[in-house]
Amino acid sequence: MKYRKLGKAGVKVSEISLGSWLTYGNSVEKDRAIRTIHKAYDLGINSFDTANVYAKGEAEKIVGEALNEYPRDSYVLATKVFGSMGEGPNDKGLSRKHIYEQIHQSLKRLNHDYVDIYYAHRFDPNVPLEETLRTFEDLLRQGKVLYIGVSEWTAAQIVEGLRVQDEFLLSHMVVNQPVYNLFDRYIEESIVPVIRDNGMGLIVFSPLAQGLLTGKYRKGEPLPEGSRAADPKTQDFIKNMLTDENLDKVEKLIEVARDLDITMAQLALAWILHQPGITSALIGASKPEQVEENVGAVKVELSERDLEKIAAIMED
Q: Is 54 among the residues known to form the active site?
């Protein structure tokens, strides 16, 4: 495994991180989920990600239980706040009340004293940024959180957040977690420059485009049994991506991977790790073998010619 600094922050995270969205506590049974987390740790992954809303807290319980077998200082644990956790008027968002209550509930589910990274899972236009960021600052000072980050904020929202933190002498957010893969590159135009200019890290999710970039979905073939697209609980996240145009590109990418003697998933992940500003690719694995395959991407060196081939395929 290789490790990169989280922007200009002192902490280092593995180039491959393991997440728990749509998997642990949901479509993956507990024992297999824990074995998958343990395999990731054994392979050198030290960056683990979850959120309070994943399976309504069940993912946090599984991640916490699996990681509690290891020394606390040997991994970087992240969770998030924003999404709805109940029916009440204060059960979602980034108000002081919701953040304060959710960090304690998350820590209880995780069975941890603190989390390394606490993310604002989305931007909340209904709460003043000062209120949100002062609350995060309080959690930093209390030692319940070591670093703060944001997920899926626009470039303008990140810039305004940093301005507010400067104005009130608050600690800066250190990481952004957006979606990023060969089919979804919206961050390159405005977000990556803002992140790099302000010394933040980028831990990107959905690097395999919900499984489209694994090569498991092929044009003219039935959906693989047990796949995300075949599962009624998760198929909405992938089905709109399974277009003929996208599947044609996947076929060409598979040929590039074959020429390099690597898997399609390793090609997609290696491409991400070769992009400017990227700290880590956040995978979602449902079994240990997937983690083992994905970790192989850190050893892949793509030449300029390889990158040009990939670019030509995606621009076609």
A: yes
